[in-house]
C-alpha cells in the first residue's frame, strides 16, 4: 500500500495490540494497521455477528488472532507480556445500548472491569508506550440540550451502556493519574470519545445501518424506532484515523497528549430518519421507512453532539469526508459485498487508500 508513510511512519514494524479486533471497527483498524506495516495482535471474543467483517476480510490469516475475554485478566496479561506490544488500541466492549438493557451485568463487567484488567496488565508491561481507549459520545451526562459536549463536561449515563462508558472514562483517568502520569517507563494513556460510526461491514443487531441494509436485501421497508433522534454520524475511517494519529503523537511526544479527546463529525448531525432516507436514496430503491408505533421501554437520548475543537486545535485532526461522501462509501461497500472474499477485501483496502488520498488532497496533517 502506498500510504505506509502516513501517521509519521510510526506504525511500520511496530507490534500493536487491538482488543475487539473481531468487531466492526476493530476489523477495519486491524486491516489498516496491517497495511501500515504493523505486526498486529488481536484479542477478542469470537466474531459477534454472522456475517462478520473480520471473517469477510480473512483477517485470521493476516494477524495473530487470539480468542479471549477481557474479563479474563490472567489470559489478557499473559498475551500482553508474551507479545510485548508497543502500542495498544482498546476497542473491545459490549457496544450496544439495547443489549445493555438485556444484560447489564455483562455490560458493566466487560466495559468497566475489562478496561481495568487491561490497564492493570499494561501497568506491568514496560514495552507499551501508547495506549488509546475508545469510549463513546454517550459517556457524558446528557441533559438533552443542543449544546455540543466538550471534554470537561461531567460523565454520566442514563442507560447501562452509557453509564459503563462514563465509568470507563473515570477508571482510566484514575489509573492515568495514580500510576502512569509521572512514570516515564509506563505507557501514555488517552481516551477517545467518538460519534455514531457508519461504514461497510457492520452487521450488528439494533443498529441503524445494518437494519437498513438487511431490510433492503429482503426488500422490506425498514422500521425506525427513534426517527427524530439526532446523532453525530461519521464514516468509520474518521475515528480510526483519529486514534491512529493520537497514538502516533503520544509515541513521539510522551506526556503531551495523554488525556481525553472528542473526535466527532464537523457538521453531520442528522436525525435517524434523515440518515435512513439518505441511505435509501443512495441505494436507489423504492423502499420507504416505517415508524415503530409502540412506546420504547429502552429509551435512548434524543440528541448527542460532540465538540471536537480541542482535537482540531491541538492535534490538527479533522474529518475528511462529508456526510454525503460517508453515505456513498457505506452503500458502495454493501453493494460490492457478494461472495468473493478476496474482491471485497481488496475493495475495503481501496476504500482506505481512497480515504488517505482525499486526506492528502485536503491537507490533513497525519497524511
Overview of the structural elements:
- The protein is built from twelve helices and twelve strands.
- The radius of gyration is 19 Å and the shape is globular.
- It has one domain (13-361): 3-Layer(aba) Sandwich (Rossmann fold), CATH 3.40.50.720.
- The mean pLDDT is 92.
- The protein has helices spanning 24-35, 53-56, 73-83, 97-102, 104-123, 160-180, 208-217, 237-252, 272-283, 309-314, 323-336, 341-361; strands spanning 15-19, 39-44, 64-67, 87-90, 130-134, 188-194, 196-198, 223-224, 230-235, 260-263, 269-271, 290-291.
- The strands form three sheets. It has a seven-stranded parallel beta sheet, sandwiched between helices. Strands 7-9-11 form a three-stranded mixed beta sheet. A two-stranded parallel sheet has the order 8-12.
- With 367 residues, it is of the alpha/beta class.
Compact summary:
The chain has 367 residues and is an alpha/beta fold. It is 42% helix and 14% strand. The chain has 12 helices and 12 strands.
- What is the name of the CATH topology? Rossmann fold
- Output the number of helix runs: 12
End-to-end CA span = 14 Å
Q: How do the strands of the widest beta sheet line up side by side?
A: 3-2-1-4-5-6-10
Question: Which regions are unreliable across 5 or more consecutive residues at pLDDT < 50?
Answer: none
User: Nearest-angstrom radius of gyration?
Assistant: 19 Å
CATH architecture call: 3-Layer(aba) Sandwich
How many strands appear in the DSSP assignment? 12
**Fraction of residues in helix:** 40-55%
- Strand/helix succession: EHEHEHEHHEHEEHEEHEEHEHHH
Shape: globular
CATH class: Alpha Beta
**CATH homologous superfamily, by name?**
NAD(P)-binding Rossmann-like Domain
